[in-house]
Structures are given as structure tokens and as C-alpha cells.
Amino acid sequence: MLVAAAVCPCPPLLVPEVAAGAVSELDAARAACSDALGVLAASRPDRLIVVGPAEQEGRGPHPQGATGSFQGFGVDVRVRLGTAAGTPERQLPQSLAVAAWLLEHAHWSAAPVEGLGVGEPLTTERCLQVGRDLAAQAERVALLVMGDGSACRSVKAPGYLDERAAGFDAEAARALGEADVAALTAIDAHLAYELKAAGRAPWQVLAGAAEGAALAGQLLYEDAPYGVAYIVAAWS
Q1: CATH no. of 2-235
Q2: Is the pTM above the cut of 0.85?
């Protein structure tokens, strides 16, 4: 059963070494992520499952001890999912590597950790079923859900400016902040794809996991500093 969830964005810029001279620009986002992870730890979960967007080859599942790095961004920063050593067959996808950094930064030790990457093409119904299956894995399951909102909030954004993006992100932030399972389920997957919202599938996995859990939500952070929407929320 799902007992808590944290929703965090997954830009590599959350890692200070990657951000370099721009490190302070996401200080508030990092602090909010830390607060959200504190809510997860306080829920005393039996298991923490990290869910984030991934390409086909990176979907996993990824066991505790799986490793990732940010060498592709020119920095020698390596991360491990959870505290146990492992011999994973594949590297963590970018979103789960960011999650692993957040967990290391928070000195996570509250429960064993595993990761699952989900693909953008995953249908809403399939996302919901994945979430239900995750919630059934233990008596007390917590989720760390990684994913960004639209990437179309400004002319310098990766997807350029799309006038629909602000409304999409506002509704996503409201739904995540209020733990509104029905609203997350109703997110238009095609619109999310057009707006390059990588969080759509992970958010709908969360919706499936939270069915019947009656969790309350709190919005901790919402901004689009690089034309990409970053949202942090905690459910408990």
C-alpha cells in the first residue's frame, strides 16, 4: 500500500557539479526536494521505489545498488541507488541518477530502494496498472516520482514557447499539490507529448499507486527557470 510519495523534477542541473556557476539558481528546488524526501522518511516505508522517465534500454527494473554517473555532462560524479553495493547490468537512466543523487544528499537510510524507468509512450491505463502493482509490493510502499512538466514555457526553452504550456503546468502543479488522483489520471497524454512534459507517465504511475490510499498533498515548489516546469510536492 502506498503510504507516501515525493514528486521531484529531474534536471541534471540539480547536481551542483553539473550546474557549476549556475548552482545557486536551483537552490530552492534542491531544498524543496530535501523536504519532500523528509516526508518519505517520516512515513517509515518498508520499501522506496523510484520512478522516472527513461528510454527503452534504461527502464529496468534497477535493483538497490545500481549505479549511474554524470560523466556525459563533463563531471566525474557517480551515484548509487541506495546504500548496498550491486553489480547492475546497466547504468541508471538520467532521471534515476538524479534521484540517486538526491537520496545520497539526503543520507537516505529509511528503507531499501529500487528504481523503475517508464517510457513516454506508455498509455495512461498501463501507467495506472504499473502504479497499482508497485503499491502492492509491500505493506508500506513509498514512491519517489521524478519528472518535469512542459519544456515550452519560453522562447529559449527546449521546446520553444507554446501558449498551452503555462495552463498545462498550472493544472499539473495543482493536481500534484492536492494529491488529486483523478486529475492526474485525466492528463492528456498527447498534449503532454507535444509539450515535452517528461513527467506525465511517472505522474500517472503515481496516480495508479495512490488509488484508494487517501493521501493528502502539499506543493513545495513550482517554477520554470529555464523554460521547463519543475514541480516538487509531497504526499502523506
Answers
A1: 3.40.830.10
A2: yes
